[in-house]
TrEMBL record, chain A:
Highest rank taxon of the organism: Eukaryota
Localization per Swiss-Prot or TrEMBL: Nucleus
Chain spans, region Disordered: 216-243
MF terms in GO: transcription coregulator activity
Keyword terms: Nucleus, Transcription, Transcription regulation
Taxonomic lineage from the root: Eukaryota, Metazoa, Ecdysozoa, Arthropoda, Hexapoda
Keyword NAD assigned: no
Biased composition (Polar residues): 220-243
Annotated protein name in UniProt: MED17
UniProtKB/TrEMBL annotation, chain B:
Source organism: Drosophila busckii
Name of the gene encoding the protein in the UniProt record: MED18
Protein name: Mediator of RNA polymerase II transcription subunit 18
Subunit (UniProt): Component of the Mediator complex.
Keyword Ribonucleoprotein: no
An individual GO BP term: termination of RNA polymerase II transcription
A single cellular component GO annotation: mediator complex
Lineage: Eukaryota, Metazoa, Ecdysozoa, Arthropoda, Hexapoda
PANTHER family cross-referenced by the UniProt entry: MEDIATOR OF RNA POLYMERASE II TRANSCRIPTION SUBUNIT 18, MEDIATOR OF RNA POLYMERASE II TRANSCRIPTION, SUBUNIT 18
Major localisation: nucleus
Length: 650, 215
């Protein structure tokens, strides 16, 4: 203990240094009194934390909070030390008052009803969370994958020059066809004639798609099928679809009922037997379209044609049923039969073939292209009339009535003419009329040609007017004798109509003939008769012979209504010879010539005729063997005959 | 069904609502300088404009008859197409009703085609000339809508046609449909069409009463 060292122990400065003087002495704050420390502690109570747990947490973070509390202390020291406590208590009191008010109101149930809150059923099971996350992730993955797919496609298109012009082709398609984009991104086109005035109900929509390789195609079609396309008729299987060749990057999908080739076949048939042969060739006829397949323009044109033919046939069939014909029209399947004239039938059939086989049967010979064209033209006219109404003049006049209808009021049209305005000829009626006319024209041509061939003597020359309407044509017939044109020319005009002929002769007679060819034949023969006689009369005058009598209608023979045998009686210049001519025309032209001489050179008196002057009475006609007389024609022979008889007397 | 008299058939037509007697009208105007654009627009929108647009040149004469009991005179408009062989058109227009709920102006309207003696006939009846003008322009149609773009030309009385001059430097554009009663969708159809002409011409229903005495 001897070398023990004194250690001074000083307590740490407990009190805060208030001030340090210049000499280094530190002035301490006096330690707080009991009341001061109580106030300090009271100020540190956080009244907002009330529950026990909160207090425990508070203790943990007490060290951190102490610094802040000190600052607050310093700040509040200037005020009355219990001020903060009082404020807090006052706040608590206010809250208690409010709470008691609320409870009293709630208990009263007059102003406020308290309902228990629905328990938030947010019990998230882990398995559900896993599923939702999985779904979200897979959706995101799909977005990424489709984006990548599109990029890859675009990239491969850039590399492949054949495929990249899809949009160019789409532009070209857009220039010629009506297209629109529908909500699900598909492009739908319309090839119907509705904008051109058609009122046909069948839809003509087609779908435009990008041509891809076969695998992709199948997937896209299956996708389209599963998504349930907007229009059912655009949904077709790829087997039915027209597969493009590689050259085109655009593909049009035409509904199944518009695929293939269609046309309207028009046949006029004379006898029942012909019907069978025509029906055999119904299917599979048409141009070979395999070469054109793949070019969408062709595909669409064909489809549009199919639609048009269907509309035309539907219209005709409807009219055929509605029309009240004496012999009813027959509609069987895709065939309409109408009777034109007795034993002559018009058959209109719709031929629609979807097979693309190249082995076509031989083309049908009796298919009438003119009538088919007329049918198309007629339907187009209907379309045109549907969409092109005349504009009214003056401009305030109502839109719609035709020009004829507009003047009906001011011109005081009667009921009949108004009713006449409402009548329109249906397409079927018009086509039947045209077919009848064509048939009548052919028949007239045939009759005239055979007559011109058979009858050599007066020549029959027929001039057909080149300009004619579909139901009316006109022929002028000249009958002349070769070498004697100056003596006479018989001409007549025949108007060929639908079921009748109208003949206008030179003398102004008008005759109406029916469709029977025999009537025309008889008429022409009678005209030949009268031609011969009239020419003979002028020839006789020319040769100084006297025409004693002539008659165009002797009243004998069969062809009564139009004229019949004609005759002529001629006398020589000094009246000692006579020629009698009779021309009959049933059924062939038959010429008979008789001559008589008075007085006879040799006269022998008999008890009955005692004197020679009785011979001047004439009579005793003798028939000349006319076919033996020299000369090319009837007039030529007659000229010879007259000349020889005249010279004999001289 | 047989209809005996004209009066009966008229009432029959009215009752069955196939007599077009209501005119739905929208009007607007466009300056001469911009009318070409409007014509192009109409060519694109209307039916059958593959040919050049239909022109018209009409003279409209409005005749009025003072009636003893009412202060509103009875007005009849007679319109004649100049240089064209078409009957005169006489037109009666009722009071326009500008209903806020309807998109167009609606007025009753009767049209009748007449012979050229109608003006003399009306004068004999006591009608007096109210005003006359020449309308010249173009006509389009879209469905049952009629669109006229016309220039109104003043007629100087006592002078020849040479002295006539346009009333203003703009064209009047009218969109009208004459339909039987009870076809309310006409107005909507017209409103949609008028929308399509919007930046060029503002087609509106014009309240004549607010314009005062201007015909």
């Amino acid at each position: 203990m001897s070398n023990s060292v004194n250690i001074s122990v000083e307590t740490t400065c407990e009190n805060q240094i208030r001030e340090i003087a210049y000499d280094g002495t530190e002035l301490y704050q006096p330690p707080p009194t009991l009341s001061e420390s109580l106030a300090k502690c009271a100020a540190r109570i956080d009244f907002s934390k009330t529950s026990l747990e909160d207090l425990k947490k508070e203790e943990k973070s007490a060290a951190a909070a102490e610094e802040d509390a000190k600052d607050a202390n310093i700040f509040q020291e200037s005020l009355w030390p219990w001020d903060a406590v009082r404020n807090k208590l006052k706040d608590a009191y206010t809250e208690i008052c409010v709470l008691s008010d609320v409870i009293s109101i709630a208990k009263d149930k007059r102003y406020l009803v308290l309902d228990p809150l629905l328990e938030d059923s947010d019990d998230t099971k882990p398995i559900v969370q896993v599923y939702t996350r999985k779904k979200a992730i897979s959706q995101a993955a799909q977005v990424l994958l489709s984006g990548a797919e599109r990029l890859r496609n675009a990239h491969s298109e850039l590399r492949n020059p054949n495929v990249k012009d899809f949009h160019i082709e789409l532009l070209r398609l857009r220039q010629n066809w009506r297209l629109k984009k529908v909500s699900n991104g598909a492009i739908i086109g319309d090839l119907s004639y509705r904008t051109a005035g058609s009122k046909f109900g069948m839809s003509g929509t087609f779908e435009v798609a990008k041509a891809e390789d076969v695998l992709d195609e199948e997937t896209t079609t299956s996708n389209a099928n599963s998504s349930g396309g907007n229009t059912p008729n655009t949904q077709i299987s790829t087997n039915n679809g027209i597969q493009p060749n590689g050259s085109s990057s655009l593909r049009v999908i035409v509904p199944a009922e518009l695929q293939g080739v269609a046309y309207i076949k028009v046949i006029t048939q004379k006898d029942q037997e012909d019907l069978c042969t025509a029906q055999v060739n119904l299917m599979g006829h048409g141009p070979n379209i395999t070469a054109q397949v793949g070019v969408w323009q062709k595909t669409l044109e064909f489809a549009q044609n199919v639609l048009f033919c269907k509309e035309l046939f539907a219209q005709l069939a409807r009219e055929a049923i509605q029309l009240q014909a004496p012999i009813p029209h027959v509609v069987i399947g895709n065939q309409i039969r109408a009777t034109l004239l007795p034993n002559i039938q018009l058959i209109i059939s719709l031929c629609h073939s979807t097979s693309f086989d190249s082995n076509q049967p031989a083309p049908i010979n009796d298919h009438d292209h003119v009538l088919e064209h007329s049918l198309h033209q007629l339907l187009r006219e209907v379309h045109y009339k549907n969409s092109h109404h005349p504009f009214p003049h003056p401009a305030s006049a109502p839109l719609g009535p035709s020009k004829k209808r507009m003047i009906a009021g001011p011109t005081a049209a009667d009921r009949d003419s108004l009713l006449e305005m409402t009548k329109t000829q249906t397409i079927l009626e018009q086509i039947i009329a045209q077919a009848q006319h064509i048939f009548m024209r052919k028949r007239t041509q045939y009759v005239l040609d055979t007559l011109a061939r058979d009858v050599k003597d007066p020549q029959i020359v027929s001039h057909w007017n080149a300009m004619n309407s579909p139901t009316m044509s006109c022929v002028k017939i000249n009958i002349v004798t070769h070498g004697y044109d100056a003596f006479g020319r018989t001409s007549l005009v025949i108007h060929v109509k639908e079921r009748s002929l109208k003949c206008i002769c030179r003398d102004g007679r008008v005759m109406r003939l029916s469709y029977e060819p025999q009537e025309l034949r008889d008429l022409i023969l009678c005209q030949i008769n009268s031609h011969q006689i009239s020419c003979l009369v002028s020839l006789a005058r020319c040769m100084a012979w006297t025409v004693l009598s002539n008659s165009n209608h002797l009243g004998i023979g069969k062809v009564e209504p139009l004229g019949n045998a004609s005759s002529c009686l001629l006398a020589s210049p000094n009246s000692d010879r006579m020629i009698a001519v009779q021309i009959r025309c049933d059924p062939q032209i038959d010429v008979k010539v008789y001559i008589a001489r008075s007085p006879r050179q040799d006269f022998f008196p008999t008890p009955l005729v005692p004197e020679k002057f009785w011979e001047n009475l004439g009579g005793n006609f003798k028939e000349v063997r006319f076919d033996k007389i020299e000369g090319k024609s009837f007039l030529n022979k007659m000229e010879f005959l007259m000349a020889s008889l005249t010279s004999n007397t001289a | 069904m047989a209809i005996s008299s004209a009066r009966e058939s008229l009432s029959h037509a009215l009752n069955n609502r196939f007599l077009p007697n209501l005119e739905y009208l929208l009007q607007g105007s466009i300056l001469d300088s911009a009318v070409e654009h409007l014509m192009h627009r109409l060519k694109g929108l209307c039916d059958n404009v593959d040919t050049s647009p239909e022109t018209f040149h009409d003279l409209e004469v409005c005749m009025s008859l003072r009636q003893p009991n009412t202060n509103q005179p009875l007005m009849l408009r007679v319109r004649r197409a100049l240089g064209r062989d078409a009957p005169f058109q006489m037109r009666y227009l009722g009071q326009p009703e500008v209903d806020q709920r309807r998109p167009t102006l609606v007025r009753s309207c009767m049209d009748c085609a007449c012979t050229n003696g109608i003006l003399d006939f009306l004068t004999e009846m006591g009608f007096r000339l109210e005003f006359e003008y020449i309308a010249k322009g173009y006509m389009f149609r879209k469905g049952r809508m009629k669109i006229t773009v016309s220039k109104l030309i003043k007629i100087v009385p006592g002078k020849q046609d040479m002295a006539n001059e346009p009333i203003s430097q703009s064209y009047i554009v009218e969109l009208s449909v004459v339909a039987p009663t009870g076809q309310e969708n006409v107005g909507e159809e017209m409103r949609v069409f008028a929308e399509q002409l919007k930046p060029l011409v503002q087609l509106e229903k014009i309240d004549y009463k607010r314009l005062g005495n201007i015909p």
